[in-house]
Design goal:
heterodimer; A: 369 residues; alpha/beta; five-stranded parallel β-sheet; elongated; B: six-stranded mixed β-sheet; six-stranded parallel β-sheet; 14 strands; 19% strand
Chain lengths: 369, 383
Amino acid sequence: MAVDTYRRPSPEELLRRVQAEERRQRRGRLKVFLGYASRVGKSFRMLDEGRRRKERGEDVVVAAIQLPATPDLEGLLKKLEVMPTIKATYAGRVYEVLDVAAVFRRHPRVCLVDELAYDNPPGSRNPKRWQDVDNILDQGISVVTAVNLQHIEEQQDEVERITGKRPRQTVPERFLRSADEIVLVDAALDDMMQRAGSREPVDVRRLSELRELALLLAADVIDDQLENYLRSNGVEVHWGTQERILVCVTPRSDAGVMLRSGRRNADRFYGDLLVCYVRQSNLSPADQRTMDANLELARELDASVHVLDGIDPIDAIMRFAREHRVTQIFVGHSAPNRWKEMWSRSPVDRIIQAAKDIDIRIFPHPQAQ
Amino acid sequence: MSEQELSKEGATPTAATAKGRLKIFLGYAAGVGKTYQMLNEGQELRRKGVDVVVGYFEPHARQDTIAKTEGLEFVQRKKIEYRGTVFEEMDTDAILRRHPAVCLVDEFAHTNVPGCERLKRWEDVQVLLDTGIDVFTTLNVQHLESLNDEVWHITGVRVRETLPDWVVDAADEVVLVDLTPEALQNRLHRGAVYATEKAQKAMQNFFTETNLTALREMALRHTAHEVEGRLSDLSVPARGPAYTARPGAEGPARHDRILICLTERPSTAMLIRRGKRVADYLHADCLAVHVQRNGASSGRGGHSEALEKHLCFARNLHIETHVLRGGDVARRIVDFAREQNITQIFLGRAGGNSILRVFGTTVHRVVRLARDREITVVAERRR
């Protein structure tokens, strides 16, 4: 249900917002073109954006670009002011270091920086190019830049699993997430194959996996931005574009099947997995062991685990589910008790009744399987 | 099959016979640059000597897009008069006669004006593909049937022109055309998307920052889903989505079969979309069943118009449908689920809010009788 409620922010919250806003206003804006492989066309998009901005009257310079450029980039570069980089040789390798001091002196409105993950040689102003960009932003100059998924620090394990390689040059994901705008540069696989030509074989599976990862990373960053936007505008929204699965565990039964299914469903939907348990007092040692095992498995499955308090467990679960924009609740049948069920409403009945706007998935009791 | 089975409709196999290749430029709103990119690629092919024509183009008075058509051959559109107004539609027969190597077709989800041979533009595109013509086309994510309820929920707009997901799943390529909402709003302000007055209206209603961001996120996730679907079609054993390499997660061994229980209630459409979407994401089989109470009969074929509509909708989404007869509806559903090795039963909510109505409804009886299967009671999403 899209119930928007306005929450009055506390004075501390207001102050924090004002300070954050001031910081944002002083700083330049960061825009990142994210690609899933080289040759998807990130640099082209970046330079093309620079050209358009310049044509609209903005003061744009290119501060770092890999030269010699390909013919299509060459055409765009002719229309732009390209600042020289500092050439440095270290351990037999030639480096092109972004000239931060020169950018400060020139002080354009917008600065285009290719290859955000570039490593500077020892003795440079900063070890990493993204730190150079950070300095430029602090001076109130906006930056448009391009980076490949492979170079995002936190994606290294996945990238290595897919490609077998671990790039040395990386940018921390938090820097990407701090961007004001992120654009995914997508390209069809057959176009990638054509661009590669006969020079090198293209691994379709590898490229597809990287592409999927890049799309999901961009979706994730955007989801964060949406949530920040809603929060800073005091809007609480009870819907999600993302599936959020809440598994309710109890001390009464082994939740293994439910938890694993929750993980698999969350993965398939590219969603989040949450696990909750409503605190009960005076658990028997056996129940305590079951509960501990359930929560341990939940953590192992990388779920966010929440312990709830409430006189009525169903109320507590529903309140939590709505606050966290849950889209599916997983619950288990309690142990069969036919006589009792004939005369009273079971918790499952009650949760179905209560959760009008959330899907309820009911799992068999482990003993019934 | 049980003798009580009244009818059964097999799901049509996905079009594997199509010889032409289909490439879809997927976006999240008008003005993100789908048509521009489609034309740009068409121009590149033309320069390489490929025989490219424009089958349908919707200029929307966007100067930079119109400029991109320069030098491309257009197939004349067909004029159709309907209720005193003349409409222009894609002339599929003329394209077939011209028979280019590649045909560019704007607005894949378009509904043809009554009087055309086919109801939907995507059906015209299927005809082109069947004769070996490659087609490039454009689509916004909100036109996907499976996302219809979410889009309505978020934006308040019930998108009427939808197309079944399998049409997109069967495409050879789906490319995301991304633009930030900031840039899109700038373009709207400059009047680059619509004429200014119309832009203002669009801004207020559909093009709010939250709507655009949510739709964009949907487009990104849906493209990831399309990429993943093509990945698991590759001969090499699939690993599942990129994020599944976790310890303790279920292996790929389990094969899900989902059963959607149809009733005559209007919310059944929502139930069908939800069940099918879950089935697609889990790579599960998807069946639908309706049980008719013994003695009840109305309308043609023994069932009502409302039910006929739901059955037809399910078949269009490539769901195998079954209509059964039985004295005890809940028991018949559960027996059928066991016969069919169903792993998950999808039910809609019973109407009304009164606690009294909960007891004894089909939903609660199925929940009680099928304690050995997973059951999903689907939310009735409202705004």
